[in-house]
Fold these 3 entries.
Entry 1:
Amino acid sequence: MNHIVEQPDIDALVRRNRELEQLEQDHRRMELIFKQQAHNLQERMKEINCLYGISKILEQAGLSLEETFQQVVNLIPPSWQYPEITCAQLLINDQSFRTKNYKNTFWKQQAKIVAYGEPIGILTVCYLEKRPDMDEGPFLAEERSLINAVAELLGQTSKRKQAEAELRESRRKLKEQNQQLKEKNIALREVMSQLREEKVELEERVLANVEHLLLPLVKKMEDRGSELDKEYLLLLEENIAQLTSSFGTKISQLHQRLTPRENEICNMIRTGLSSKEIGKMLNLSYRSVETYRNHIRKKLGITNKKINLTSYLSSL
């Protein structure tokens, strides 16, 4: 009995071969997509690490502005697509910070650094060799975003460091001014103390001279003068005795509108002289003296007639 061997369906084999080829193409395409996504993810991770690293540098206490800028520049090349051929330079505030391999080439990106609305520097990232064109020459669009972000951070850092320096200087000046003020206050207190001592000594000398020299002479003159002379001498004696009182100062400070004649009459009233006696001494009529007394009361604000003018002036 003969067996018949069936021939395979050629068309089915061709279809199957095409399906396998398509699957292989799809597989290669997916591999490329996955590789590209992995590459992109790696690039994004480098960018994130760059910004994170810069933030950690900016947080370091006691780091000078120059040290900060140099560390930031050193952190840039590993964050670009071709770190082995990447270099960077920062020009800011008339200072230059660069990586050891820096060279100005045709393949570069730049970003301005701005503080308080004014440009204060420029950040440059260069490739040392030619690379395929991407979004911006050989650079990625994400690298443009990254260099802009770094430039913005540097501008903010410059402003903050400048503000901190100005604050420290203000505090230093304030501390210095406070110290100077303390020293001046101490010196002023010493001067005031010395003046008080000198005042006491002067008063003691004046009183001694008044008691031992002036008053004895006035008493001798009283014994030899006329009645009018005696009245003037009594007034003089009273004023000499009150030489160190504050009446004259108070009457002039509180009531500067009094005329010299009114001040003179105030002094006579204070010693207890009547209007008649004052008129006789000043060659004025009784009525004129009373008019002066009324003017003095008004200027001193003594409108109440019950207040004795002599007692009021004696209390000053």
Note: Strands lie at 86-92, 95-98, 108-115, 118-127.
Entry 2:
Amino acid sequence: MKQYEYIIIGGGMTGSSAVMGIRKNDQEGTIAMFSDEIYPPYNRPPLTKGLWDGKSVDDIVRPMEKYNIDLFLKTKVVELNPHEKWIATKDGQKYQYQKLLLASGGDPIQLPEAPEGLIYYRTRADYEQLQRLTQSKDKFCVIGGGFIGSEIAAALAKQGKKVSMIFPEIGISGMRFPDDLAECLNDYYRENDVKVYNGYLADSISKIGDQFQVVYKNADNGETTEETFDAVIVGIGIKPNTTLAEEAGLSMDDGVLVNKFLQTDDPDIFAAGDVCRFEDVALGEKIRVEHEDNANTMGMHAGLNMSGEMEKYDHQPFFYSDLFDLGYEAVGELDKNYDIVEDWIEPFKKGTIYYLDNGKVRGVIFWNLWGKVDDGRELIRKGKTYQREDLLGMFS
């Protein structure tokens, strides 16, 4: 059985950042990384952003070769034995570790009873498949109005493609944004030649030749509409890939539970990124975050701690999105059940949106306002009670 000092399960941004963290403390320790994907680690956000604006695929690849690791691609880990400290891969090979990181991310949620050929958009392979289709196809259906759906719909429309969006919420990103902003985004996307079917559910999808027939239903009155597309892209969220951890007996709660050092129940097994649930110190509660900043920062921190540093993880991650010519950065909880204060410099074009619970700021969106994330973090961290008038004009 081959032995490594460090084993990382997952070849994404979290895992590759962990390698960088390990190498800051340990230049010689042996590292193995196992990934299901066919490609070495890369930056994920450009898959829905920069690659559609002319960025090269070569520019998103992370230079793992300089860190002296054994990288196992197209290799699925099927068993984790924390008692004897080994993992087993699908091809029957076993590998021993001293410290292990679960950075296995998540798998796209799939539609029930859907035909083969739908693109559950998440990986570089998905990007390359869709990019090839745009060379010869014209009509695309995007199911989902959240991060992936809104970004990929914008990307395809900018390529001159005919795009239809289908989602059940009141508006784009309607699960997080106040209703008036979400509805305004519907109109904005329509102005950019995207057909937006808000308040609709994909009722059935069938394949006819090399096309897809989609029947979508109005959630209010049950009225159905039928349309044929060259491709269907689905972005309705992910579920954390926790199977290994569950079978190994580690504690779960919508993800692998970790302590303040990112350790699981087993002190030699760490978890980071999309797969883990950790304590947001500023919010004072356990959360799971599926965004770039958390993947990079938490992965680095896990690598540092695996190699001996053992510092508390107290970073509050932020996230961002680009929607045609609009964009935002946000931090904290964007819970629509909270009291929402909108402070627009220019309505729906530039401003700040606050999410308050009993007067305390729990989340902030900076809409077309850049470089203010640390200010948002400070508002949340202070835990002060604010009235609406206290917040108006704070960042205008």
Note: DSSP finds eight helices and 27 strands in the chain.
Entry 3:
Amino acid sequence: MKTTACSLDRRSFLKSATLVAGAALGTRWTGSVQAADAPASSVPAGRPTIFKSVKWGMINEPDLSVEDKFRLLQDLGFDGAELDSPGGVDKAAAIAASQKTGLPIHGVVDSTHWGVRLSDPDAAVREKGRRDLETAIRDSHACGGSAVLLVPGHGKDGTHEEVATRSLEQIQNALPLAAKLGIRILIENVWNQFCYQHDGPGDQSADQLIAFIDAAQSPWVGSYFDIGNHRKYATPSKWIRQLGHRIIKVDVKDFNHETNKWAEIGEGTVDWDNVRAELGRLNYCGWATAEVGGGDRKRLATIKAQMDRVLG
């Protein structure tokens, strides 16, 4: 692999396991760009300040306009929304609705990262994935967001080192744009057979995911920690403690590791009391976005109540 100022060779990647992201800059990240700019006195130590959101695709009210969907979320007490890009809802309509209602769009999810993977063995596919990531970065910026959620690759594309090296190269190629626009690239822990053993034990370490994030050597790369996804691999609160300041945003769902099935939020085996405690220990100030089966107003109201119950 050709090494540039924004890429890593194999030796740098292996060495990165000992690095701490952002340490050279002396920074400590909080929940989001907006939250990080708040006066320290407005965020009491030990009390997580969590803004609740949903993925746009969870809103199943087809007769409502984009603006009316924003008003629905507002009426239910949600603090914001997260869109998809490339594609998804018309961004101009969403921006107008956000500005009119005052309900923010806090970011976007890269909508093609599963099919157009940054870790694909085909270089042309990887480059297409990087262009899609850059589209998502631009859309997040245009919408007033602070980040793009990214699944960086899949274990089926090669060895752990091959997947990591390929995806890191494309992430770092996108970093100049991300830094220019002030948009973080946040790595989701998801069932992609990368950085964990999918059918392995339930007490796995976060070491590989930490090494991958730190290998970017950039404050613009962090963790989008999915609380429910990780109940299959480990106790979520332990991963929150390990990932620490790398966590910029969180996704919310629940999982029952005893039955190996998804569960309603608060009805699985996620250790929510400890999750809240660990987020408090980090003085977490940022977004928590539900990623569960959506529906109409009644269903969304149920999700909001569940989030309130487990997160406070």
Note: The two ends are 47 Å apart (CA to CA).
